TrEMBL record:
Keywords: Hydrolase, Magnesium. CDD domains: NUDIX_Hydrolase. PROSITE patterns: NUDIX, NUDIX_BOX. Residues 4-142 form the Nudix hydrolase domain. This is NUDIX domain-containing protein. The keyword Ion transport does not apply. Its cofactor is Mg(2+). Belongs to the Nudix hydrolase family. The keyword DNA-binding does not apply.
Length: 148
């Protein structure tokens, strides 16, 4: 199986109560799962630019995503069915409060994005659906806050 390289920017958006924003996806080929905002880096785009673009597209927020706070290399199959080698860079943004309103979802995202909610760190380990990345709680406790 040939895996396509997939650079991606992911956002750890934390509210004033210490909760992280996650999106619930319901693809046809697997059980529902929750993950952070973010997505593929477009050709010629930096990870930083992709993080800002993805944040706006998926939440409607126009914020500086700051520096990368973590990196992860994983393999998975995208919602489009493409096996990938993902090079994911994480950006952390801490906000007091904010409204979430998608600004520019893709057709695929509109089809599979079911809902969103803020999760406490305690909820991450007891939630009955898959949360990605699996070690999100550790990632949140080991990264530094970047206040927007």
């Amino acid at each position: 199986m040939t895996r396509e390289p997939r650079p991606a920017a992911r956002i750890l958006l934390i509210d004033g109560q210490g909760r992280v924003l996650l999106f619930r996806f319901t693809p046809d080929d697997r059980p529902p799962l929750w993950c952070t905002p973010g997505g593929k880096v477009d050709e010629g785009e930096t990870y930083e630019a992709a993080a800002s673009r993805e944040l706006w597209e998926e939440t409607g927020l126009t914020l500086d995503c700051g520096p990368q706070v973590a990196r992860r290399q994983v393999q998975f199959v995208t919602f489009e069915g493409q096996p990938v080698d993902a090079d994911e860079r994480y950006f952390r943004i801490d906000v007091d409060t904010c409204d979430i309103a998608a600004a520019a979802l893709t057709e695929m995202e509109t089809r599979v994005l079911d809902s969103w909610r803020w999760f406490t760190i305690a909820e991450l380990s007891t939630w009955d659906e898959m949360i990605y990345p699996a070690d999100l709680a550790d990632l949140l406790t080991t990264t530094q806050a970047v206040v927007a």
